[in-house]
Amino acid sequence: MSLKHSSTSFADRYPIRQRSLLYGLLCQRFKTATRAIFIDVPASLPYELATSYDLDVFFFNSLSVVQKFGPWCFDTSKATSEVYKHNYILGAEDVDWHTNQSSKGGAADNLGEKIIIPIRKVDTVFAGLKSLGWLHINDSDNVVELLRGASQVIAATKPLITIIVPPAYSISRITDLIALCEQLGLNLYNNRGELIDQLPEQSSITMDMFALAKTEQLEQSFTRLLNQVSPSDYRPDIAVYKEQCDLALASTRSLNSSQFIDFLRGQQQHFSVPSVLAKNVYPLEEYDGVSYNWTGPNTTTAFILPLPSFGQYHLQIKLYAVQDAAKSRSARLFIEGQSSCECELTENSAVEHDFYVSKEDYQGSIVINLSLAGVSHIPESGRHIGVAIEQLSLYWQEN
Q1: Residue 90 and residue 149: Cα distance in Å, rounded?
Q2: Left if phi > 0, otherwise alpha if psi is -120 to 50, otherwise beta: which for 233?
Q3: 116 near 98, Cβ under 8 Å?
Q4: Is the separation of the CB atoms in 41 and 138 below 8 Å?
Q5: pLDDT recorded at residue 194
Q6: What fold characterizes domain 268-396?
């Protein structure tokens, strides 16, 4: 049985807008909730909206990101990220992961350094928790394991569980997820409100999945929320869409919804360096009202940026200052390890590049490397610095 039926292709035509509206309404719904647990990529769309609405969020980095890009993600996030509040990652069991530092996805310093990453279950970290409104999981390689490690908390608190899976997620993995949800007394739905059970078809898998306890009250609340996002008679027409946005924004006027407006209307997201996972950067500084981070001490800096969906993007890296050593020759920009362009670096300018992420390749985040010709030694501080980055921005287009 389905909670609702909809034949609209709105989510396919406007995936980021649909997701922005969905998570904006979820944040509005859970603003008064006791607590939310987020396992995600720093600065992701759901997390940014949750913090803009001042939700009480416990944030944990995704194990999938650390496994994909290397242990430096875990170490650096503790040292420089303004969102990372915990010195462990959530997983299926309580273990210490012993690994070596690598250059995968980032600058090649401290290679071979021994890294110990503590992995803990949700049930261990939040033992005895009595109230949880929302559990959000964006960790595609470890969804089943994370839920298994959260079984006691889920049973005690009955939260709404949002699960993000890439569009190319395999049927076999969804089948495993369905089986575990059944064991935990949960129903699994896609973002059209269709119950996913038995042997699902690929078309039934959507980027945002929902698991909730089998209670009438939760199902009714969930149905109302989905009807706000994409009612059954909704037409994927831009004029109608803007009217829908106006209604949503009017209902959140008293809240801090600047991020909501950016996602919903502006088709853009802006990042400070401390808000994302970054390698080879110095702490935040401020001069003359401008905040920035110097890159260094090495010549290659890495950033892991969350992507709200597949599609066409425009990347902009806004520069505040550039050292002479970095100006001497062209810099190179790499996206997912592939050389994308050469660029000249000047003060108060920007590095810009267009790129496309297909539905099949979409994994929720992307690594950007900026490789400089050189860095300058500053005797007064002893630092080696390259460029001062004020902001990173992503812009996207939806038809």
Answers
A1: 9
A2: alpha
A3: yes
A4: yes
A5: 82
A6: Jelly Rolls (2.60.120)
The confidence score (pLDDT) of residue 195 equals 85
pLDDT of residue 322: 96
CA–CA gap between residue 147 and residue 130 (Å, rounded): 17
Q: What is residue 376's predicted lDDT score, i.e. its pLDDT?
A: 96
pLDDT at site 4: 38
Backbone angles phi, psi at 102, to 5 degrees: -135, 170
Question: Would you state the pLDDT for residue 325?
Answer: 93
What does residue 74 show for φ and ψ, rounded to 5 degrees? Answer: -65, -50
Q: Identify the burial level of 247 via C-beta atoms within 10 angstroms of its C-beta, where 0-12 means exposed, 13-18 middle and 19 or more buried.
A: exposed
Return the pLDDT at 305.
Answer: 95
Residue with tokens 């108060």: 348
Closest by CA to 160, choosing from 306, 45, 27, is: 27
In this prediction, the residues of the chain whose per-residue pLDDT falls under 50 are 1-10, 79-83, 103, 106-108, 231-238, 241, 252-256
Domain ranges of the chain: 10-266, 268-396
Query: Helix/strand/coil (H, E, C) string of 76-112?
Result: HHHHHCCCCCCCCEECCCCEEEEEECCCCCCCCCCCC
Tokens 């610095």 sit at which residue? 385
